[in-house]
Amino acid sequence: MGVDLTCELLGLRLRNPIVLASGILGTSASLLVRAAESGAGAVTSKSCGPRPRDGHSNPVAVDWGHGVINAIGLSNPGAGGEVALLMDARARLAPLGVPLIASIFGGTIAEYGEVAQIVASAGPDIIEVNISCPNVADEFGTPFAADGRSAAEVTEAVKAAVGPIPVSVKLAPNVPAISRIAASVVEAGADAITAINTMPGMVIDADAGRPVLSNRVGGISGPALKPIALRCVADVARAVDVPIIGTGGVMSGRDAAEILMAGATVVGVGTAVWYRGVTALGEIAVELEQFLGRAGYGDPAAIRGLIAYP
Amino acid sequence: MGVDLTCELLGLRLRNPIVLASGILGTSASLLVRAAESGAGAVTSKSCGPRPRDGHSNPVAVDWGHGVINAIGLSNPGAGGEVALLMDARARLAPLGVPLIASIFGGTIAEYGEVAQIVASAGPDIIEVNISCPNVADEFGTPFAADGRSAAEVTEAVKAAVGPIPVSVKLAPNVPAISRIAASVVEAGADAITAINTMPGMVIDADAGRPVLSNRVGGISGPALKPIALRCVADVARAVDVPIIGTGGVMSGRDAAEILMAGATVVGVGTAVWYRGVTALGEIAVELEQFLGRAGYGDPAAIRGLIAYP
Amino acid sequence: MHEVFTVVHVRAENYRTKTLILDRSLSAQPGQFVMAWLPGVDEKPLSIAAEAPLALTVVSVGPFSEALHGLGLGASVWVRGPLGHGFTLPDDPLGKRILLVGGGYGVAPLLFLARRARAVGCTVDVCIGARTSADVLLAASFSAVGAMLRITTEDGSAGSQGMVTQAVDEALRAERPYAVYACGPIGMLGAVEHQCKRYGLPHQLSWEAHMRCGMGLCGACEVHGRSAEGWLACHDGPVDRG
Amino acid sequence: MHEVFTVVHVRAENYRTKTLILDRSLSAQPGQFVMAWLPGVDEKPLSIAAEAPLALTVVSVGPFSEALHGLGLGASVWVRGPLGHGFTLPDDPLGKRILLVGGGYGVAPLLFLARRARAVGCTVDVCIGARTSADVLLAASFSAVGAMLRITTEDGSAGSQGMVTQAVDEALRAERPYAVYACGPIGMLGAVEHQCKRYGLPHQLSWEAHMRCGMGLCGACEVHGRSAEGWLACHDGPVDRG
Ligand SMILES: Cc1cc2nc3c(=O)[nH]c(=O)nc-3n(C[C@H](O)[C@H](O)[C@H](O)COP(=O)(O)OP(=O)(O)OC[C@H]3O[C@@H](n4cnc5c(N)ncnc54)[C@H](O)[C@@H]3O)c2cc1C
Ligand SMILES: Cc1cc2nc3c(=O)[nH]c(=O)nc-3n(C[C@H](O)[C@H](O)[C@H](O)COP(=O)(O)OP(=O)(O)OC[C@H]3O[C@@H](n4cnc5c(N)ncnc54)[C@H](O)[C@@H]3O)c2cc1C
Ligand SMILES: Cc1cc2nc3c(=O)[nH]c(=O)nc-3n(C[C@H](O)[C@H](O)[C@H](O)COP(=O)(O)O)c2cc1C
Ligand SMILES: Cc1cc2nc3c(=O)[nH]c(=O)nc-3n(C[C@H](O)[C@H](O)[C@H](O)COP(=O)(O)O)c2cc1C
Ligand code: FES
Ligand code: FES
Question: C23 — contact with chain B (CB < 8 Å)?
Fold first, then answer.
């Protein structure tokens, strides 16, 4: 049976549902192009904020055996510098037919709006809002992703700033009920949901007697994250009726099928690039095609939300 | 250098810091005794609630490659039936010098108090309060572990019901800031914290096109949980000054050392029993002893909180 | 995780028993089991009846076993395992006589054991008990591997009339075996255990229990009165080797 | 995760360079690197100078390299790797002549390469460039493995006076090598690349970059103008094989 991998996301046509996740290879136009040439259906830039940031000092990432943990520290050139990067990337991705998703973050609601407005001027196809960042206005620095109200406020600020560009809000897994956060941001105008960001964790080296990351804590990605992501995507899919960029622990085409079954519209892939190289992106698309063909499905949409609750 | 594994927990003397976690082998006096004979320093019974429960239908647990996911469904004989089990266990554990921790749960604040009172009559050494259960009085069934206020209310109800028996409250990892929940329950009278319970997740079988667990969602334990647990324990240790039963992903003596370094006082072990058999409990204690000896530490307390923030 | 197997052959063993022969092997010891999952139906323990290819002998008694009986060629069965601990043959097996005692589906793992035992040169006696001749399982297969067979039925419609324990007594009196292996209903196991103890014979009995996790975690499959305190059928068993 | 290695021997190579010889081997290709971590100090890439046992040649230029120089016997070094892609020798190496060009710590991985190349029968020419005689690294070791050595120093205090590229020109004119391998400062690499292109010679150059994750994820180590769009030193390199 012929399989057609193309799919639709927020009015865009993707040649396949594999999306390069934010923060992986997304720091330059050439790396975004490389990801596209390696077979991604769409690519996401590294999250950019209001000001240039160097990020944390080394070690910033390590493979701890069942996944990766990272605390890169949101190094980025700042919204101003990002615009040139995005425009360059857009121009070079267009002939490949690969849409560009621009990821942004901020420390306050107002900053989200400002960054969104600047980044929107580069004309990305979608703006993704990383809300797993500490709210600097909150006395505990709680991430915006932690509660529905602040997540909704960020969403509104971004929507107001970007005009017609669709917005996907990227949720965090360390909440009691991700479905409620999803409902809040969709009510606030989010056009899509990206689920999920990394899970907070810590890796300790017993011989050193200290955390491996210089930042002590970091975000868990890769294989260990998959069941967490599947559950989050399934919860979000039940709660809202917008497209979902399902992300977390997808290492193979079979994993991609699972997250589609959980309710994702397209599939974010990040850490697989460490395990399999940049070619993972295209390979996972091919494997998904093979899985669909073997199982008798005609396209990714055929399995979307297959496990849905009755 | 000689290593002394004995340690103190809430006034009890444990021959070693390895504690059988709740829900593993804790369904009968003979299984609790077996865990003790296999080398655990203390043992925890399976959580018991107000009424007998059968739990979910099969499949209820599966090894998904980087850990286990389970949704046993809190099968238990009800508080009444549990008392006999606990009294029998206590009598047989006493000669081994192994303290007994009784785990309880409820669906409402009042139920927690009732179950605690009944279970207290069996005279366990510690009562552990599993608050990862849906609050049936809440319209969304949010777990009590999800916010500080309901967690504190449960703590108060249990403390009021159990007299002098010390109480440890067991926290969930799927919250934005576990340190705040910890602070709330300690303020409400918790004598100790158990961190952490399983992380919610879902495992999907792509061929079947459905979740593997009959309950669809379940709790992730084992290797994938370790960095999540380490971070939670470190966060809790910073926030409160009570003993911590550090639990999650401990498979070896080295893992036990890591969780002690994160701030745990003693170490809960559950899923290791699947990977290594019941003998894992004693073996992990021996491995911890070897690690401490090689590294030149005299006892577990010497590494407690070693990674603490300056 | 479960692995998906495909049914490539179905053999009717008696009026309510079928053997599902699957498309691949699963290396295992006789007496070990798998957790077989039919999505949407149930997941239950089944003894490994043969390993190359994997075969499962199923008695249709309720929803799950009926669903297994309903599987046609090409259907999928999800399996995790092998789990637990099986039977162990004598260390120096050549020429040693062993006695196998089976009832119900319990004869399936014993046939797997008989094959292994014959391959390493054991002399194999088998006692099979059943209600009527129609319930007798796998008798021809035992004969085919060269095992000496004694059948008893409660109504005498096949073999001698009576309980399987009578045949066991006979076999024990005829020639003392090196060890006794049994799998079947709990009542039968209790009786065989008693006989073995009386004769002072090493014995390995496979016990049934309600299994949930199958991973030695949940405690559901504890069998009391076994060789160890807190004995778990899925982890320590199903075979209790004493 | 990092593995802990113990320093079992320290060899002073010149006034500001030491080789740390560790307690175990790490199987690797010449040109691959490790991320070396000193808890509380930093984690940085270091070329693998030898694999059995693992050795790291460190030039003391700042906080991290100084901390490495401060390690005594028995001290611990945390290492993850080998990472990246190293040099590849000609397919049919016997009798083939290769030219190695090194500057700074770049001679360390070239020595590892020279050993491998000699072991499979290559003829090895080496050009080492340095500022003064005191900066020349590992010259005796190259001679010891039977490589033909040309040294240049900027002040003429050892070998010929001038830049290493002059020695390369000489070597290329003397006899055309099968391929050129280089590791050193970026300016030197640029010049060598230019020479190789002019002579139409296959070349493999090892490029430096600021490394963060070392895992091909973060993009920090991208080097522009390499053989592929979005070339990552940690993942595609550090050796660009064209
Ligand atoms: C270690 C182990 C190995 C097993 N191996 C096999 C095997 O190889 N083949 C096999 O068919 N079953 C085997 N079983 C039993 C199997 O797991 C199920 O219990 C059986 O398939 C019935 O499930 P069900 O849902 O169809 O019926 P249920 O609804 O669970 O049972 C229906 C009724 O039949 C009774 N019953 C259950 N099993 C039997 C039986 N075998 N004979 C007579 N009555 C019974 C029950 O007590 C109940 O009253 C094994 C069990 C264990 C613990
Ligand atoms: C793939 C790769 C392999 C490497 N292999 C080695 C190796 O085998 N041995 C080794 O010593 N270093 C090697 N390095 C460099 C190493 O990673 C560090 O940059 C070096 O140790 C300096 O770190 P620092 O913190 O001590 O000094 P920094 O504070 O980072 O540097 C101090 C100053 O010295 C300059 N500098 C950095 N490195 C050098 C150098 N090698 N020579 C002269 N000046 C320098 C810097 O530009 C800076 O101005 C390698 C780098 C890469 C990318
Ligand atoms: C090294 C690294 C850097 C990341 N940086 C970002 C980022 O800047 N913004 C963001 O929204 N997510 C970031 N993420 C999270 C990923 O986009 C993704 O949500 C997560 O890694 C889970 O997917 P995976 O398991 O496929 O990697 C980063 C992940 C990694 C591993
Ligand atoms: C099969 C199983 C059953 C469990 N049942 C309970 C329970 O009844 N009450 C409870 O508080 N925790 C329960 N847990 C959670 C464990 O006590 C422990 O917190 C968790 O598994 C993490 O530790 P581990 O990685 O060592 O297993 C259960 C875990 C498993 C795997
Ligand atoms: S079935 Fe869970 S312990 Fe045996
Ligand atoms: S250092 Fe992160 S991609 Fe190379």
Answer: no
